[in-house]
């Protein structure tokens, strides 16, 4: 599929932002989503190609706005929902519960 | 990893990940202990020190180097490395005449068993867009290395089937060094191809 992810040769993105001695993760949640992704993949409910295809469904706006780890969240949610492992409703309910519990 | 900032509310991304994890744990679909094992592995064990060991061995043992170039997955397996994103690898050798550079224009493919997880710049648009169009400029921007015009630059675009790994040139002045000493000279960036390995002064 062509799309915004197909960046090879494009102009206009500016200088490369290089961070010396960069750690694998900058925030706790980045490490968590990485590990959750791997652990869920182990169920074998989707192929790598399916996973790529799902990632490529992100809109160009989201793709350019979000960082790498942000861009892995929504596709994993979609794969889990399409595989029947969770539902959108229970996920959104849980997000609101977590949001409420963290507010204070 | 940076510490939790308890005095700040979590970001939207952090909230969603917390929610997803708790839902999956409640359903018995993931085990928090397994997540810890995965994170630990990529924070401590699986990183560019592995690739550096492979490079040092290849510099010292010509037969190992031949095996590494011919059958990378088996050769890195000899040193105990392998697994996810290292199943199908191609090792490309830098010489006086050829300099190789690795990119993944489509996403973030990278030889995890040898280099760990890729740095942010490798996954971000500026490098992915420009590495294939102006590799010499990108190399100079990242490491200051200016390749001579007569050196051929080859750019390898990784994908989910094949990962590329650069075997850098052994620098002059390192003839007396042993494997561990040599490995300590080899940087992650040299194994991506955006830098060279230099001898200690």
Question: What does this molecule look like?
Answer:
The complex is a heterodimer of chains A (104) and B (201). Chain A is 52% helix and 0% strand. By secondary structure, chain A is mainly alpha-helical. The termini of chain A are far apart. The mean pLDDT of chain A is 92. Chain B has eleven helices and four strands; from the N terminus they run αααααββααααββαα. Chain B has a two-stranded parallel sheet. A two-stranded parallel sheet of chain B has the order 2-3. Classes of the chains: A mainly alpha (104), B mainly alpha (201). At the A-B interface, helix 1, helix 2, helix 4 and helix 5 of A face helix 1, helix 2, helix 7, helix 8 and helix 9 of B.
Keywords:
heterodimer, A: 104 residues, mainly alpha, globular, B: 201 residues, two-stranded parallel ribbon, 11 helices, disordered N terminus
Helix content of chain B: 40-55%
Report, as a whole number of angstroms, the end-to-end distance of chain A: 44 Å
Q: How many alpha or pi helices of chain A? A: 5
Shape of chain B: globular
Q: Unreliable stretches of chain A, pLDDT < 50, 5 or more residues? A: none
Lateral arrangement of strands in the main beta sheet of chain B: 1-4
Order of helices and strands of chain A: HHHHH
Helix tally of chain B equals 11
Low-confidence stretches of chain B: 1-5
Query: What is the mean predicted local confidence, pLDDT of chain B?
Result: 93
Alpha-beta classification of chain B: mainly alpha
| Percent range for β-strand residues of chain A | under 5%
